[in-house]
Each structure stands twice: as structure tokens, then as C-alpha cells.
Amino acid sequence: MFKYTFILAALFILVSCDVRNKKVVEKNEPLKQQIEIKDPTTVQLIDSIYNFGKVTEGEIVQYNYRFKNTGTKPLIVTNVSASCGCTVPEKPEQPIKPGETGFIKVKFNSEHRAGNAHKTVTVSSNAEPAFPELLLTGEVTEKK
């Protein structure tokens, strides 16, 4: 009997610890968003459109969109999302200091995507005005 009580108590403690940890993370999330809104900066896109030309179906296209923090506060990219699951963007993990250049890496998988490609990447950040959309275009030819 003691053995079952001990196991049950141990499981209860493990579950309780996990729940408290999640609540702390959830409480800090709005604070992070307030900091970003409170400290806006400006951004200049160096590359906003990339035309990869023609590729054969199945090829992976990669490109790094460049941007510069032209403001006086660190630029924090909070989220990047693509218009299609075939396009995977990666945001910079560290804030971009004023005057520095940052990159948003994008990979496009052309498998089963024959035809004209027109993909957009949306960037969320503390830039004011908002970060413009990034565009990836080109033509995917069928495999033979």
C-alpha cells in the first residue's frame, strides 16, 4: 500500500511542477510583447524580392533576405511565416542592433510545385512602420 501511495505522490508532484512552469512562461509572454511595442525601431529592406528563375521540380531554393536596422533601438524579429508549407523561413534569434544588417533565411521545396511560384513571407517585429512582406518568385519545370 505504501508503495502505491509513494508512486501516486511522486506523479502528482511531477505534474504540478510542469503546470507551474507553463504558467510562468505564459505570464512572461505579454511582457515580451509590451517591450517590443514600447521600443519601436525602423528597418530598411536590402532584399525584398527574389526571383530564382527556372528550377526543376524537386530542387530546393535557398535565399537570405537582407535588412538593416535603421533605428535607434534593437530590432527584434518575433515571428516569420510563409504563405505555403513548401516555404520555410527562419528568423534571426538575436536582436539586430542599430546600424547592423540581419538575415531571414528562406527555403523553398519545389517538389510537386510545377508552374509559376509566387510565395510570400510575413515578418512580425518591433519595426515601425511594419516590416514589408518578402516575395519569392520563379518558375518550376516538371521532372522528365
What does this structure look like?
The protein is α+β, with helices and mostly antiparallel strands and 144 residues long. It has 2 domains: 1-38; 43-141, Sandwich (Immunoglobulin-like). Helices cover 26% and strands 41% of the residues. It has 1 helix and 8 strands. The protein has one helix at 2-38, and strands spanning 43-45, 49-56, 60-69, 77-82, 87-90, 101-109, 115-125, 134-141. Strand 7 (115-125) and strand 8 (134-141) form a beta hairpin. The protein is flat. Residues 17-36 have low confidence and may be disordered.
Chart the SSEs and their pairings.
Blueprint: H1 2-38, E1 43-45, E2 49-56, E3 60-69, E4 77-82, E5 87-90, E6 101-109, E7 115-125, E8 134-141
Parallel strand pairs: 2-8
Antiparallel strand pairs: 1-3, 3-6, 4-7, 5-6, 7-8
CATH class of the largest domain: Mainly Beta
Q: Could you say what the CATH architecture of the largest domain is? A: Sandwich
CATH fold label of the largest domain: Immunoglobulin-like
Q: Approximately what portion of the residues adopt beta-strand conformation? A: 35-45%
Sketch the topology as an H/E string, one letter per element: HEEEEEEEE
Number of strands: 8
Structural class: alpha+beta
Shape: flat
* SS field, number of helical segments: 1
